[in-house]
Amino acid sequence: MKQDNRTYYIGVEGGGTKTKGIIVTSSAAVIASAEAGPSNYHSAGLETAKANIRAVIDRLIRTSRISRKRIGCAALCLAGVSRKGDYPSMVEMARAAGLDDRVVISSDMVSGLVGGAEEPCGICVISGTGSNIYGVNKQGETCNVGGWGHLLDDEGSGYYIGLNAIKAAIRGQDGRLLPTALAGRIVSELNLGSLEDIVDWSLSAGKDRIAALSEFVFDEARAGDTIARHIVDDAADSLSRGTEIVIGKLGLSRVRFKVVLAGGVFKAHRSYFDRVKERVQRSAPHAEIILPLRDGVHGAALVALKYRGCDLLKKHRPPGSGKGRGGEIGDHLERKNSLELVDLMGREDAAAARLVPLQREQIARAVDLIVPALRAGGRLIYIGAGTSGRLGVLDASECPPTFGVDPKTVVGVIAGGDRALRRAAEGAEDSAAGAVRDLKKISLTAKDAVVGISAGGTTPYVIGALTYAKRVQAKTIGLACAVSPAMEKLCGVVICVPTGQELIRGSTRLKAGTATKLVLNMLSTVSMIRLGKVYGSLMVDVTPTNKKLVRRACGIISTVTGCAGSEAGILLKKARGSAKAAIVMKKLGVGYRGALRHIVKENGFIH
User: Fold this and answer.
1) Where are the beta strands (DSSP E) in 423-474?
2) Which contiguous run of DSSP H or E holds residue 46?
3) What DSSP element (H or E) covers 44?
4) Among 126, 512, 99, which Cα is nearest to 299's?
5) pLDDT digit string, tens, across residues 482-517
6) Domain residue spans in the chain?
7) Does residue 273 contact residue 266 with C-beta atoms inside 8 Å?
8) Which CATH superfamily is domain 158-290 in?
9) Which residues are catalytic?
10) Residue 52 near residue 35, CB atoms below 8 Å
């Protein structure tokens, strides 16, 4: 039986009534699903929340028969975890998942947005039993309006509509409002003797039962009841006002973005969806206002798969509270001794290195784009600015001596040109047009594969390069250390290694640089192995440009063919410096030209 070496991802969404989970492949195909009780620790209690999270994950593992070792990441998107004070409980719930440090925690609003919009940017407006409005712009800035709970807020929710129906009914009976059909409907549907009995009923009724009254309100509004229509309009206005506040704070009024109207009230009542949509569209004419494309649990799986920058564990981790964190203002690195600083940097780099294998499938997909491009006579082109650009140039420059490729086969392009390798040219990274000029200089074509490298995933030079590369139909690959919606739209494959805050804030030459170099090592090395540049573990296409490399080439020939070192030297000379040709000459007993013909016939491989 073939061993399963694929990586899988778990998404869990938990609230006040239930916890749902799915396990997916790297292409987001669902393998298994599971459900358990509530995991909002504020209402259910921390131990209950932990037990239900553990139960969902255990059931997913058991049902799918997938080893825990194959889980790349689990995202727990939970209600009630958005505040800094929730951090200790978040840590406990992450531990309950039983997946070591492969867990991120975010809110159910994030999973609602990511599932609803299928991207981490936009606005999610929830109107179910409760309500909330949450938005994120492309710069990663967030804004939340509402979500204070039914005792203090929940405007526009089913609870809000149901409660206002009760208030309208009793005020109508008192003569403070016009009489409404809602009074008779409430008495009838709740089997009350009279409206006075609503007092006793309301004292024992929970939030869900009051929210259920919203169904009667929509019925009576459709039937023409003035008060019911006013209640529905007021609820829609409250949600649209909150959405407008989020739009303004995030600077979205003049850009294209999605507004997801989610929750049971929108799902059950299209007229309510249309009311809110119409009002929001006035303040944001470029907004695409939609029902959710996927549900929240699928959004949680996408967080685990692609959008781990939403992790609240990292965002709310207090200063001095454990491994993997970046430098905080209160850390005062200057007060630490040399050994403490070395240990701290070592832990940071080790954390970055552990994140890279989680992107193994994306890296493999990138290789599978690069190899056909190179076989067809195209090039592998790295392009970036600053540290990212220098690392691309470094990896490209190492390919000719290591693998014997033409220097024009793997190309490194850096914003600001070669001068920027030694002296910073940071301003060059802001020019998208400069990237286009640089790619035109090297005559980019559809045959080529372009890897855009940007630690933050937003560098204008890199985004400009990928935009142009896509336009000329080159293969496009994005490499970032943060979630990049721009790269997602432009690239066939995006490799995101979410290294988080640096020890020295903003210095992405540190662990982001470490992770980037590790990924570039894999892209070039695995591609070259796939092209036959390695035999066993030997670099048979090494270019012997100095005495050390001549000795290495002779050693390779001797190792593969079993000949003496002196004969290996003679063979290398006859093969005009090609260890691979020398090996074929010895193995097949042919001359140099015969060896070349054989190598071409075998697509560069030695068999």
Assistant:
1) 449-453
2) helix 46-64
3) helix 41-44
4) 126
5) 778 888 889 999 998 878 777 787 778 888 899 999
6) 8-108+294-315, 158-290, 355-530, 547-601
7) yes
8) ATPase, nucleotide binding domain (3.30.420.40)
9) 398, 429
10) no
Instruction: Answer whether 0.70 is exceeded by the pTM.
Output: no
Collapsing DSSP to helix, strand or coil, 122 comes out as strand
pLDDT digits (tens, 9 = 90+) for 173-200: 999 988 899 999 999 989 999 999 999 9
Judge residue 146's burial from the number of C-beta atoms within 10 Å of its C-beta, 0-12 exposed, 13-18 middle, 19 or more buried. buried
CB 462 within 8 A of CB 383: yes
The answer on pLDDT for 36 being more than 60 is: yes
CATH 3.30.470.20 fits 355-530, yes or no: no
In 10 A of CB 344, how many CB atoms?
Answer: 17
Q: Which two tokens stand for residue 294?
A: 């996927």
May I ask the CATH class of domain 8-108+294-315?
Answer: alpha beta
Number of C-alpha atoms within 13 angstroms, CB side, residue 564?
2
CA gap 136, 112 in Å, rounded: 12
Residue with the bigger pLDDT between 290 and 536: it is 290
At 292-342, the pLDDT tens digits run: 999 999 999 999 998 887 777 776 655 444 433 444 433 577 778 888 888
Interior CA angle at 447 toward 442 and 449, to 5°?
Answer: 75
Nearest to 382 by CA among 481, 470, 444, 453: 453
What is the total residue count of the chain?
607
The three-class DSSP label of residue 298 is: helix
Residue 597: CB atoms within 10 A of its CB come to 13
Render pLDDT for 425-445 as a digit per residue (tens, 0 to 9).
767 888 899 999 999 999 999
131-136 and 122-127 as β-strands: parallel, antiparallel, unpaired? antiparallel
Number of DSSP helices (H) and strands (E) in the chain, helices first: 25, 15
Relative orientation angle of helices 386-403 and 511-530, to the nearest 10 degrees: 30
Angle at 248 between CA 242 and CA 250, to 5 degrees: 105
Residue 539 has pLDDT above 60, yes or no: yes
CATH number of 547-601: 1.10.8.1080
Angle ∠(353,358,360) on CA atoms, nearest 5: 100
DSSP state string for 314-373: HHHPPTT-STT----GGG-GGGS-HHHHHHHHHHHHHHHHHHGGGGHHHHHHHHHHHHHH
- The DSSP code for 535 is B
